[in-house]
Structures are given as structure tokens and as C-alpha cells.
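[agent] plan:
  1. take the single chain provided in the ticket
  2. run structure prediction with default settings
  3. attach C-alpha cells to the ticket
  4. add a short note for the reviewer (M.T.)
[agent] executing step 1
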Amino acid sequence: MSPDVPTRWALRENLSLLTDFYELTMMNGYWRTERQSITACFEYFFRSLPPHGGFAVFAGVEQLADYLEHFRFTQDDLAYLDSLGVFGDDFLEYLADFRLQGTIHAAEEGSLVFPHEPLLRVEGPLSEVQFLETFVLNALNYPTLVATKTARICQAANGDPVVEFGLRRAQGPDGGLSGARASFVGGASGTSNVLAGRLFGIPVRGTHAHSWVMSFPDELTAFRAYAEAYPESCLLLVDTYDTLLSGLPNALTVFEELRKQHPQTRAAVRLDSGDLARLSKAAYRIFTEAGFEDPLIMASSELDEDLIADMKRQQAKINAWGVGTHLITSSNWPALGGVYKLVAMHDEQGDWEPRIKTSSTPEKTTDPGRKRVVRYRDEGGRPLGDLLYLHEEEPVTEGLIPHASRTELSFVRGLEGAASVEPLLKPILLDGVRVHQREPLTIIRERAQREISLLPDEYRRLRNPERYTVGLSPQLARVKADMIRHSPGVLE
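[agent] step 2 finished; step 3 output follows
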């Protein structure tokens, strides 16, 4: 795979108009009121994890960086906008020469992230950073959701390979591609999506459908034909008719025949219906009694992390999992509530001035000001908590680390046992120039797996995990409390 293939995928069509219309109307409004060049800072974060989630896996940064690097309004874009009859020629001329000038910092793709902490800080001219809102949300919300869902499924599988089978149930071709890539980041070992395999270098996996069996006079003939075509990678789907009465016995016959020609043959079947735990035990018994010591028994059929965990508790003999619908759609939580909020602007003297959105719902009140996110770790590298500091603050690095809860600003405590500190946000764009080097997807995946392995068990529970600490520095808490007190009103 050539290193520029992901860029070519991201740019297979010009994406400058992949935005909400109000981004353009605001951009036009800022330009007409001569506010387009005021320097502003927006931050991207999400407010809630999916149900029973203790962490999220951040994904989508590479696609976002590709978009930022090559952003332009084309003549076709401008012609379409002109046809709407909303924008004047002078504004369209402004768009023709428009180039990104801002600076963007982001958490590394594959990092573990948590609610209410900035994962992207975007600084630059107001019209520019406002316009980026929709694409940022589109590029980051869905991949992060799918990577997180996959990580939970892989946790339940407890080391067994998980293959993403979701293309046919994905939300269109883009969802199929983005979802396959995100699932690999989250821990999937492969995908059924051939285009994703080609574009991203993800291992492709697949067997055969029920129609293969049904197209032959009988099941045994179908299995023999498949084994002849793929003698070194034969995996048979055994539930077209009756798994116990015909599927497994016919598969055994074929694998015994295959073993005579290829002594290292491994019995391998896929179960796609019925009581998967019970059938897997029967398959294991049939194959091991025939001398196949380590049969591959793959399960599919509407799986998710809860069902996989249940079958593990039942000591099912399944050792590979094909997961489709519930992974690619994150069916129990189909959207990540990422938001993109204004947190600071330059005043007339060119100094940063914090901004806040208040609400009678404490969780919806934003944290004001340009911020840095700092992660504290213990001596073993395990994360203890993340603190939000004002950008000009120096993080506390020794002793008890005081901080405030986001919603109870008077509640202050200390992070104990911190041995190291690291910034979460790193530059991807400086003054409009990309500085983020594209990483191989395998490196991103390895980062995610390493970070998950370092996360203490209490945050990885599939049910009722401990809540990870994301706090405010005392100085940021005071600024926030003061701005809430002096807010002109509470807005919903």
C-alpha cells in the first residue's frame, strides 16, 4: 500500500461543501460585519460515553488531517454556491482565495479519551474556525464511536480474534470504509471489506454464504468443492440445513479427506444460527475426538459484547468472532455526542478573552478559555486522571495534585501517586501548514491496544465501570465560577 492511498481515498471527491449550510451563512455574516479575521479558539469534546462505557478510543484524526491539508473551494463549488442566490459575488471571490491559516492541536489517534476534555483545539480567524465545525464533528464522532464499540467487543472476546463483518449493514459506502478503519484501530484483527483492506492495509477475511451450499445438489458436495478451491484456508459454514445432523458431520468428512492430502489441516467452521454456545461445544467434541486438536470455531449472528461475554461465561468453545451489525452501527448508542464550542477570542488589544456557554444543566456548561489537557500516570504507566489547565498555566507535577470537579466547583481533592505527566494535545496544523506525519494504521492500532492494557480494570468493566477523573485546575475552576456568576443569564 503506497503511503498516499489514504489521502486519495479521503479526497476521491472534493469535500469542501460537506458542511452544514449555516456554517457558510455565518462565514458570510462574519465577513460582511468585518469580523472574519478576529482570532478565535474552538474546542471539540464529547459529553457522554456510550452506556456502561468507561473510556473511548479516539479515531478519525488521519482523515481530518488529510482534509485540512488539501482544503480548497473549487470553481464548481463556487458555481453551486452562486446558484443558491444567497451570497454576493464579493463573498464568492473571498472564498475563491480562501486558505486555512489556523493552528490545530489534537489528541493522538488511538488514545484513550474521556468526556468533557478537549480532544481538538482549533485556533485561527473566526470565519475559518467556525466553518470547520461540521467537518470536524463528522470526521471524529463516528470513527471514535466505532473504535470504542470494537474495543468493548474485543474485551469481551478476551484475546480471540474479532473480524469486522459490517459492510452490508453500514450507513452507506462511507460508513463501511470509515467503520472498517475505526474497527481496526479499536482492536479488530481483520475485515470483510475488500476496499478497506486495499486502502488501509487491513487483513481481509471471509468464508462462504449459505447460497454456496444451496447452489450444489447437496451439502457434502458443496463442502468438497470449497475445500478443493481453498485447501489451505478452508472454513465451512455449517448451518445451512441442520448443524448437528448434517453440517458438522459433513464438515468432518471433508476435513478428514483434506487431512490425507494436507496433514496439517485444521478443522474450521462457522456457526451462524442456533444456540452458538451449545453448538460450539458439540463441534469441538466432534473434531477433537477425530484428532483435530485445535479446531477453529467461528461464530457470527448478531453478536455484541454482552452476548460474547455471556458465551464466554458458558465456556463456549468459540475462538473467533465475526461481528457485523452491532459493531458497525454501534447499535446501542448510534451517535457520539461530540460538540465543538467557542471557548476564547482575542479582545481589541489582541489578548485572549475566555468565553463560556452557561446552562441550567451543569453538564452543558462549557469550560472557558484556551486549555491544555494533561494526563497523570503512576509508576507503571497506568493513567490516574486528566486535568484541564488554562493554556498559560504550568501543570503541577509533584505531590498531591489539587483539582475541582467539573460540576461541583467547590469540591477539590488530590491525585495521589502520580509519577509522570504528559500533554494530551499535539500539533497537527501550524499556521495552515500540516505538521502531523501520517502514521501506519498498525501503529495507531498498537497505541490503542497498549493504552487499553494500561487502563486499570475498574475502568474496563463491561458493566458499571468506575468513572475516570477529568478535573479542572483550581485556577480554571475559579475563572469558570466567576464567569457563571457574572453571566447575563442561563441559556438552554
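[agent] step 4 note for reviewer: The domain at 5-147+333-485 is CATH 3.20.140.10 (nicotinate phosphoribosyltransferase).
[agent] ticket updated
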